[in-house]
Amino acid sequence: METVIRGLVLYLFLMILFRISGKRTLSETTVFDFVLLLIVAETAEQALLSDDHSMTNSLILIVTLIITDISLSLVKQRFKQFGKVVDGVPIILLDDGKLLHDRLQRVRVDENDILESAREMQGLQRLDQIKYAILEKDGRITIIPRKEE
Amino acid sequence: MRKHNQELEIDEDIELERKNWAVERVAWVFMAIVVLAALLGFTGNGGLKGINLLTAGSQADGVEVEYERYLRRKAPSELKVTLYPTATSPERELQFSKDFYDKVQVEQVVPEPSEVYTHEQGITYTFSGAGSTSPIIFYLKPKHMGSLEVSLKTGEKSLAISQFVYP
Predict the structure, then answer these.
(1) A37 at the B interface (CB within 8 A)?
(2) Full-model pTM
(3) Which of A99, B28, B52, B128 could form a Cys-Cys staple with B47, CB 3.0–4.6 A?
């Protein structure tokens, strides 16, 4: 019984925590984001398993987490609005070549992050080659280049 | 699917996102408060005297207890009891209420008691070496979460301490 409760509590806790800490927190954009992810994973393991290292405990925990994940995705599919609240929505950061500064500030992204994505994904050199930049639900920035005239 | 500028198909919901940003800001403040509270000792495991580290009784009472207000389930903690010898009771006897051995796992007692026995009211430890005023240390692990009310009794004097065990 305790294993299931531990699994559920931690699943919900981490889901809420990462949702409210913002999209960019664990997007692994810097080494520190990666380190943070490692430490959180290591700490969560202790809370999940406690001092019970039995096979039964691990198996029950894995099944609990997976069934929770499946249930949640079913609910999200059924109720679209719920899905939006849980997962967040994509946000346009650069609209038709124009940077939306208030949004950039809110989601803690700057021009350099957009340029980095533009280089990585499209091989673009300048900001004016970008038509749209979108911050996706998972914290990545996707780029749509301006068509060459 | 809605179209942004008649060309970009995106399910953007800026109203929801704005609400989200507001909640985020509140949550950050809340997280900062949690960290601060933990530093002060409101979540156990160290902290300031008077918040987490408390003392009950005094030399005049014949018994003094140092304890932590906030404990954590299955995490080690200490309880320090100092028994001051009185003329009426040369034997150093310490009685705990039933909750103490029901809800707490006693890992070790230093010094070793010469005798331990349970009874209707709880559990009694007897220590040899009359006249010594060095503290007796109980190494404990709480077994259940929730509030933990323990009363101690030695000779005529009794003390009640109230602790809280986090999950």
Answers:
(1) no
(2) 0.80
(3) B52
